Amino acid sequence: MDRYAHPRPHNGIKAGKNEAYFREYAEALKQVVDTPVILVGGHRSIEAMNKLINETGIEYLSMSRPLIREPHLIKRWIEGDTRPALCVSCNSCYRTPGHACVFKLRGM
Ligand SMILES: Cc1cc2nc3c(=O)[nH]c(=O)nc-3n(C[C@H](O)[C@H](O)[C@H](O)COP(=O)(O)O)c2cc1C
Ligand code: SF4
């Protein structure tokens, strides 16, 4: 099977604009299961993530591309630099060896 066969995640995500694009599905799921729910997809800012956790019963949030772009993103946030993730959601990391971020490969 083509290792890239599964659908690409959403692109064009902007912090504070269109984050957490699967939120409505996770909230619906939360209504019918007794287990903790983890939501992935489009988390880019600590503000939006905190708001989501505080407003919903969703227990955990997961991130993929922001951590490919910035492996130390969570440490950065904990240390007080709470600017949004640098990942621009271009999905170019699907085409690089080891799924590396193209910006990191260019030393950016
Ligand atoms: C390079 C790359 C490879 C991925 N491979 C898989 C995969 O094999 N299976 C899968 O279910 N999701 C895969 N994903 C999707 C992520 O797990 C995640 O659901 C998606 O990127 C959305 O989250 P994000 O906005 O935090 O990146 C991949 C994502 C990236 C960027
Ligand atoms: S190539 Fe880099 S900026 Fe583009 S989606 Fe992947 S991690 Fe994000």
Short description:
32% of the residues lie in helices and 6% in strands.
Please give a handful of descriptors for the protein shown:
108 residues; 2 strands; globular; binds iron/sulfur cluster; 32% helix
Describe the structure.
32% of the residues lie in helices and 6% in strands. With 108 residues, the protein is mainly α. It has a two-stranded parallel ribbon with strand order 1-2. Iron/sulfur cluster (SF4) is lined by residues 65, 68-69, 87-93, 101-103.
Tell me the layout of helices and strands:
Layout: H1 23-32, E1 38-40, H2 46-55, E2 60-62, H3 65-69, H4 73-78, H5 102-105
Parallel strand pairs: 1-2
The structure holds flavin mononucleotide and iron/sulfur cluster.
- The helix/strand order is HEHEHHH
Ligands and ions found: flavin mononucleotide, iron/sulfur cluster
Strand order, main sheet: write it out.
Answer: 1-2
Please estimate the helix content. Answer: 25-40%
